Structure formats: C-alpha cells, structure tokens
C-alpha cells in the first residue's frame, strides 16, 4: 500500500518538477535562478543612449509585456539602433522576465 501511495505522489510531483513551469529564452539556464545577458545583434558602434523593454511570465500561465526592439528604442529615445542585447531572469520557474536592450543614438 505504501508503494502505491509513493507512486501516486511521484506521478503528481514529477510533472511539476521536471516539466518546468515557465521557460524564458536564455543562452544559459539555471534551475533555481537565472540572470543572464546575451547578444542579439551589433553594428559598428554601441551608441550613447540605451532603452529597455520587457515581458514577464507568471508560472507559465500568464504572460504580458512588450519586449520588442521598437518598444526598447522608444523607451530610450533612440532613432538609430547600433546594437541589440537581451537579459533573461527566472526565479524557480515561477517568475520569468525577458528584456530587450537597445543602444543607439
């Protein structure tokens, strides 16, 4: 009887632990915590202005935000884009955040 209860418990817990509640694009992923920056594209120079736009996810059930290059450029008052990077944050698969970082003039 104990074996049956253990198997049922494993069947319930395994998808939660192994399935990952939420995924965010990242060059490296930590199981407990992720805070990684990575490149997307670069031109000849980095630029003097910087803008950032983010999208967030909660438990992989609810996602909202505008992490587009256009939104990041607008946030930084950038009309000529020189480089684009991104930042990924993830805490225990519960809260995830993906940000686009634009530099230019």
Please explain how this structure is put together:
The chain has 105 residues and is an alpha+beta fold. It has one domain (21-104). Helix content is 25%, strand content 43%. The protein contains 2 helices and 5 strands, in the order H-E-E-E-H-E-E. Strands 1-4-5-2-3 form a 5-stranded antiparallel sheet. A hairpin with a 3-residue loop joins strand 4 and strand 5 (95-104). The model has no long low-confidence stretch (mean pLDDT 81).
Which descriptors would you attach to this protein?
about 100 residues, 5 strands, alpha+beta, elongated
- Taken together, the total number of domains comes to 1
Strand element count = 5
What is the SS-derived class?
alpha+beta
> What is the helix tally?
2
Q: How are the strands of the biggest sheet laid out side by side?
A: 1-4-5-2-3
Distance between the termini: 69 Å
Radius of gyration: 19 Å
Indicate the percent of residues in helices.
Answer: 10-25%
From the spread of the alpha carbons, the general shape counts as elongated
Overall mean pLDDT score?
Answer: 81
Strand content: 35-45%
How does the major sheet shape up?
5 strands, antiparallel
Low-pLDDT sequence parts: none
The H/E string reads: HEEEHEE
Itemize the secondary structure elements and their pairings:
Elements (H helix, E strand, L loop, with lengths): L1 H18 L13 E10 L6 E10 L3 E4 L3 H8 L4 E11 L3 E10 L1
């Amino acid at each position: 009887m104990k074996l049956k209860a253990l198997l049922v418990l494993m069947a319930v817990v395994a998808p939660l632990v192994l399935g990952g509640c939420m995924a965010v694009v990242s060059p490296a992923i930590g199981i407990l915590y992720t805070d990684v920056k990575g490149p997307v594209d670069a031109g000849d120079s980095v630029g003097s202005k910087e803008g950032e736009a983010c999208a967030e996810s909660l438990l992989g059930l609810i996602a909202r935000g505008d992490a587009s290059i256009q939104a990041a450029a607008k946030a930084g008052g950038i009309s000529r884009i020189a480089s684009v990077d991104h930042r990924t944050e993830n805490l225990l698969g519960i809260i995830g955040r993906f940000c686009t970082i634009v530099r230019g003039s």
